[in-house]
């Protein structure tokens, strides 16, 4: 089968970085048409820089990287340096990127790419707040029907929230954008905290990255070392969840994941529960099914895949 064409929309972020590396290491399954940066974990200037650092680490300077929206649709930006560090990619010491940003706004790249390809042949993979994707849908409604699928990291049902008691970070930062995307009618696969909290980087799994002995393996081990200190303290778990790579792993081996087709609505009104993903997991409403909401992962299979692919870079 031909590799699946994707655009990675991202706010790197150590876990975003690992998701990108996994995609770039898997050309038989995934064709990365471009990377679009969005403000999220850290401001846009840094996410756009970090995306290029990651491409260079992977040896893929050929991938176009576009800078996108520097703030949510209608709210001030909230960032997560307390998790990801000042640069967003704290941990390894990596050189400043040599490759330039590709000209043109990320939103226009998304629009132009969808128009240039046959309908139903390009998948969007958002790993951060949904601002770029929603902006593209609002600016060019004709592209909505051309999207093959959206596979995104965001939201939670059983795990409820990580940035507030009720909301997950990516959705909370731009709930209006999330609402636009979830109401778009595009088939959506959601990797919520419910599944990412089962993909924990335990010490043996991190040791396996480091044992690759390569620049990539060591950098990933150092990234997850850094990223972990926050979540281990918070949750008292044996390792931190590796959120965003669940998206790219799903594209390669969907059978590692399981979930339910449900209705998901986004809370945009309440101050208390802003950004909550209200997933009808138990089917208690007759609201339309708009998402495959993933709940489980074969974690060993996931980390085996990741380690095996990172070894290729
Ligand atoms: C999500 O928020 C970010 O901090 C991570 O990169 C991930 O995309 C997890 O809530
Ligand atoms: Ca992210």
**Integer-rounded radius of gyration:** 18 Å
Order of strands in the sheet with most strands: 3-2-1-4-5-6-12-9
- Tell me the total number of β-strands: 12
How many domains, in number, for the residues? 1
What is the number of helices? 12
CATH fold category name? Inosine-uridine Nucleoside N-ribohydrolase, Chain A
Task: Using the 3D structure, state the CATH architecture.
Answer: Alpha-Beta Complex
Average pLDDT metric: 97
Outline: globular
The first-level CATH class name: Alpha Beta
Strand content: 15-25%
* Bound compounds: beta-D-ribofuranose, calcium ion
Low-confidence stretches: none
Biggest sheet details: 8 strands, mixed
Q: Which structural class matches the secondary elements?
A: alpha/beta
Question: Percent helix among the residues?
Answer: 25-40%
- The helix/strand order is EHEHEHHEHEHHEHEHHEHEEEEH
Distance between the termini: 22 Å
Name the CATH superfamily classification: Ribonucleoside hydrolase-like
